[in-house]
Amino acid sequence: MRTSNLGSYIVLLLIAIGIIVTLINHPLYVIIPVVLFGIIYYCIKRPPAFLSKYSKPQNNYRSAAKQSKAKKERSRSKTIPFKVIEGGRDDNDTPRYH
């Protein structure tokens, strides 16, 4: 058994003893945070009705997205190939500052 494993077990044992003693002596110190955490978790997983209207996309957004997509498809123009312009620079010239 390595010392790091032994140390971990000792720390976990002390944490468990502390939680048990706190539950026996002062149960509200543990129950209130657990209940609050449960309420927050429940609200995240199943939001209340007054918040659910903000999380769903509205029909106006969908219709606007369809219209903009239709405009993009219609406005395609002819593809113009690139034109190569010959420059007057010699290949032997190197820049002054490199």
Automatic annotation (TrEMBL):
UniProtKB keywords: Membrane, Transmembrane, Transmembrane helix
Residues passing through the membrane, by range: 12-44
Domain of life: Bacteria
Protein name (record): DUF3951 domain-containing protein
